[in-house]
Amino acid sequence: MSSTPAPGFGRIAEIDRLSAYRQEDAAAEGEDRFVWDLSNNESALPPLPAVAEAVRQGGLHTARYPDPTAGSLVRALSRHFGIDTRKVLVGPGSAGVLQQLLLSLCGDGDEVIHASPCFDAYPLLIAVAGARCLPVPLTELGDHDLPEILARVTPRTRVVILCSPHNPTGSRLPDTDLRGFLADLPRHVTVVLDEAYIEFDEAKEPRDLNVLRRDPRVVLLRTFSKAYGLAGLRVGYALAAPDILERARKTAIPFSVTRTAELAAIVSLEQQEALAERMAHTRKLRTDLHAALDAEGLSPLPSCGNFIWIPLGSSSESFAAMVQGAGIKVRACPGQGVRISVGSEPAHRHLLEVVRHRAKS
């Protein structure tokens, strides 16, 4: 009898080993919610009036299926970025789009490399695609270790996921480093550049698509969840070469982007001036929170996202439990650090009060 596992067996075994996404966060029935949730990198600002109206209008059509291609949003993004519609893929959040990409690019036993720590969903999405997950630790400064990533590439490597600004550390991947990395990367590897937080980076022009023009192996992955504040509607997109996206479209769950989400995203694209004001406000809050945490001796890393990373090492879980006891939820990476989302000024004041009380006790 052959010892070779049946196709898909490795995928099943890997999925069995992993936990469902954020399963540990499920609140028990009757459990009180946190006073301040600074764990999910959500926008602390309410929807813009025009976006709220789009959501209301979308709700009037819930008896009918949405456009399975999200064609109106695809065309709006095409106009926004000045590119062909064939280079735009829309899906249910950037995680949903990433799942489509991995399913279309990977087979059983293929490899996907990403930095660690990372967005919690990467390992599960990779396993669902039947691929092996190869995490590469970040540097001490929270940056991608690009030389080590290159050293891990094999003939079975299909995708490298780079995240900039990186979740959870907030580090930026400089363009010069990315160009050098792509020059040395074997041609058979696709690079997914996860830019879910790109709008929060004041040094990066979100509409700069030069990397796509230089290298057809690159996929830009973006979302309306963070800067645009549509996390609850689940809509994201990818920009890439037509041949990559044509395959990815075939892996979509039918009707996965609702009409409400599509309308809200289209209106959001028209609110660039308001978006700029909101980004400036968030960056100011980020700067102030970073300075205050630094003054308390916590040494947070510089961040280009809407969150701050504190490399607390073995104290990460105890710190998270301590602030949780005071009604503040943050995201702990055991043994590595704590990520704190930029929230409202009252949330920050409460957090700092808890931190100062801890320092005195």
From TrEMBL:
Pfam family name, one: Aminotran_1_2
Keywords, sorted A to Z: Aminotransferase, Pyridoxal phosphate, Transferase
InterPro entries linked: Aminotrans_II_pyridoxalP_BS, Aminotransferase_I/II_large, HistidinolP_aminotransfase, PyrdxlP-dep_Trfase, PyrdxlP-dep_Trfase_major, PyrdxlP-dep_Trfase_small
Domain Aminotransferase class I/classII large: 37-353
Family annotation (CDD domains): AAT_like
Residues spanning the membrane: none
Protein name: Ind8
Organism of this sequence: Streptomyces griseus subsp. griseus
Classification of source organism: Bacteria, Bacillati, Actinomycetota, Actinomycetes, Kitasatosporales
